[in-house]
Amino acid sequence: MIQPTEKNDDNDDIVQWVRNGIAVRVFGEAADASNSVAAEIASLIRQRADDGEQCILGLATGSTPVRVYRELIRLHREENLSMKNVVTFNLDEYFPMKPNAAQSYVRFMNEQLFDHVDISPDNIHIPDGTVTPDRVTEYCQQYEDAIDTAGGIDLQLLGIGRTGHVGFNEPGSEQASTTRLVRLCEITRTDAAKDFGGLEKTPQLAITMGVGTILRSRRIRLLAFGEHKSAIVERSVQGAISDSVPATYLHDHGNVEFVLDSAAASKLNPSTADVSH
Ligand code: F6R
């Protein structure tokens, strides 16, 4: 049996191995996993600032990254982390969606991160849920162009939906897909329904970065916490690449880590790890 490839000296809780090109890091607690990713982001921001450069981050919403954002705010307040050199691109937004609506990802990001750090509002990009339907295609191309003009995403933070979606790239999405208007799966809408006061009030559509957009990022860190994510994490890491689980497209990338708590990792089998990567 192949043992996990590494134990981290600083934290006995961490177990890590590589499978299908994905580095899997398992922490005992979601809080420790989140702090570790926040520390990596902070280090990248500082490194870029020392070089006089901007740091381009791809950000996610939902419940999973909240603790990462909380830790970044703490680092800003208590450890002098500046986000003045940070440019952000969010993965997605419901469509249609007004920025001040309770469920808007603009509002989410402001409340969870942006209002509490020194990022310049000009550097924040979130897909616009108010674009008129006839302009969506053009708008999505502009979003792609803006990412390229900024120099590409240095680090993309991802969650994962129970359908295996990354961003809102639901099953059937193509590997080369770019930012576009998509239809949400029923499972995804059901998971979101509590935020909208019922399934019938939950949007059918969203604008999302594509799989291809995500794969252009230089590093990808996917977080998943809780037992309810364990089945899709298992299929994403150990399954074959398939459009029925879009997260499997990450196998090909080369710099992807799945950062998990032990509950989300509970169905993984480290004994099937790649011998080397
Ligand atoms: C959010 C996003 C989605 C979520 C996923 C998991 O911007 O792109 O892919 O990451 O639906 O959501 P939570 O974290 O709420 O379980």
Describe the protein:
This protein is an alpha/beta fold and 277 residues long. Helix 1 (30-50) packs across helix 2. The model is unreliable at 1-9 (pLDDT under 50). 29% of the residues lie in helices and 19% in strands. It has a nine-stranded mixed β-sheet, sandwiched between helices. A three-stranded antiparallel β-sheet has the order 6-10-9. The structure holds fructose -6-phosphate. Fructose -6-phosphate (F6R) is lined by residues 60-64, 91-92, 159-161, 165-168.
**CA radius of gyration:** 18 Å
The total count of helices amounts to 7
- Give the strand order, joined by hyphens, for the main sheet: 1-2-3-12-11-8-4-5-7
The overall average pLDDT, rounded, is 94
In percent, how helical is the residue content? 25-40%
Order of helices and strands: EEEHEHEEHEHEEHEHEHE
Query: How would a textbook summarize the main sheet?
Result: 9 strands, mixed
How far apart are the termini? 17 Å
Tell me how many strands there are: 12
Question: What is the structural class?
Answer: alpha/beta
Question: Which kinds of small molecule does this entry bind, naming each only once?
Answer: fructose -6-phosphate
Shape: globular
In terms of per-residue confidence, which ranges show pLDDT below 50 for 5 or more consecutive residues? 1-9
Strand content: 15-25%
